[in-house]
Design a protein that fits this description.
The structure holds two protein chains of two kinds.
Chain A: H1 4-32, H2 35-61, H3 68-83, H4 86-92, H5 100-103, H6 109-131, H7 136-156, H8 158-161, H9 176-195, H10 197-207, H11 209-214, H12 219-245, H13 255-268, H14 273-289, E1 297-299, E2 302-304, H15 310-325, H16 338-343
Antiparallel strand pairs in A: 1-2
Chain B: E1 2-11, E2 14-20, E3 23-24, E4 29-33, H1 40-47, E5 55-60, E6 63-64, H2 70-76, E7 78-80, H3 93-105, H4 109-113, H5 117-136, H6 152-164, E8 170-174, H7 182-199, E9 202-206, H8 210-216, E10 219-224, E11 227-232, H9 234-239, H10 241-248
Parallel strand pairs in B: 4-9, 4-10, 7-8, 8-9
Antiparallel strand pairs in B: 1-2, 1-3, 1-5, 5-6, 10-11
The chains are: A mainly alpha, B alpha/beta.
Amino acid sequence: MKSPLAKIADRRVLDASLVAVLLAGFFVADSFLDPFAMQIFKLCAINIILALSLNLLNGFTGLFSLGHAGFMSIGAFSCALLTMTAAQKQMNFFLKPIEPWLMNVTIPFLPALIISGLIAAFAGFLIGAPALRLRDDYLAIATLGFSEIIRVVFTNLQTVTNGSLGLKGLPRFTTMWWAWGVAAAVTVLMVSLVRSSYGRAFKAIRDNEIAAEAMGINVFRMKLLSFVISAFIAGIGGALLAHHLTTIDPKQFQFLKTFDVLLIVVLGGIGSISGSIIAAIVVTIMMEALRFLDGPLNLIFIQTEGTPGIRMVVFSVLLMAVILFRQQGLMGQKELSWDLLSKAGLLPRFKAKE
Amino acid sequence: MLKTGKLTKTFGGLTAVSDLSIEIGKGEIVGLIGPNGAGKTTAFNLITGVYKPTSGSIEYKGRNIAGMKPHRITKLGTARTFQNIRLFKNMTVLENVLVAHHFRMGTNLAEAVLRLPSYLSKEKATREEAMKLLDSVGLAEAAGEPSTSLPYGKQRRLEIARALATDPKLLLLDEPAAGMNPQESHDLMDFILKIRDDFGLTILLIEHHMQVVMGVCTRMYVLDYGITIAHGNPADIRKDPKVIEAYLGVDVC
């Protein structure tokens, strides 16, 4: 029989070896992946960040929000404007000059990333304060509307965002270490948030709002808190995406962008952090791997000339299959943990919890 | 402790509760009975802030709480259970109780997310307190189980435990014996008297199960169509012709 101490040691050893394997994997990826594969690898991390932020709302607080693209674009444009040099801005704003006070702001990437998250969070506060008085589908419609408002405003704010021309030539700050480093940090913070007293309050609101309120939880404040945190993370995700693509324009952040993230959350499991992570990686890779479907196909009987968008049909079918046969998604509300693996027989059994 | 004055609530043309004036002293167990649709649960919802009264006052410890938000009323020391059980379904028994501790923990978001020692010590103390509470209501062994896996009677008991975790002075129980067999309701009566003494509570109770009401309540109010038709101790209520009429109907001939 193992002592309880040995059991803890077991988990610690497993945790430590997981971190070591991941780190080694990143070093290998850093030196062996070709530039194209690297792009996708980084995109996986960004999608993890975005999916986790949406899952906090949809999965853990039970708020059906469809406004993510809006917060992403706020983060993306804020970070871009904060980091571009005056010369770069001058090159971009050739139709109308940029607002003078924005011209000479150039700060390093890390503070710019945090500030753009804060700006997105502030926008989340402004939008959440009225919208969170609504529930369910009404909230979804309201947030969707707000995110479109943000897009239209950005398209017309020529002197700030350069309008529909967008911003080009952003510094390529989002390296693999930045993308995956932030993704790891967000994951860790999310896990500890969900496990904390605040996370329990969020889940209580999701499960039964009236009972949560009767237990002394300020439901509106908690919802707003969750909304603001989610907007903050979405803003950071958007900023990383901007410096990954190096070209942004308001049109990129149409509501379809929100659905890409929602797809990941639903497939992974609404209310599961590990589900979101797995689904983000799988979906991001599949989006590229299935690109051959868009090209000319030879299915022996049917030959096509190549129809752009066929690969999206695969995701639609996948989504329908999930909704029909496995509504809880890949992981449901469960988390992938050493305990779960040992229950499934993939690891030797731990001693039962005390 | 609790005093309502001419409390009235209308939904459109329907007057659900009309001129309800009840008064409960410290340590009392008072019953609120009446046929279905009499407005009992509406009265509860008014007292706990789920609905705003159309008119009238609600005084708790001499303070007017009419129209206050439910979570504020809970913080002042009023807790309740629900007629149709409202547990947090995807959470464990222990977590259900821990949720009720949240507003008393006094943590801030930063220390909770960063798991600072100050938060961890509060979390540990709260867990110990919650386990002690579960132990005192006989649910300690089930602490790690999902709340919905409990048998019906224990789910009701968990609802009461969860309400107790908010550290109330006044406890409102909405049909705690609903769906219980005679043995379970008998246990429930002992349980209600026990928590009243252990936690120093004042209890207002809605119940259809007459044995339970008559067994634990010192006084009771009878509602019918929102109107208070009788008020008094169990023996008087049992004989009151108006009450008999409301419950059994009156002979036409």
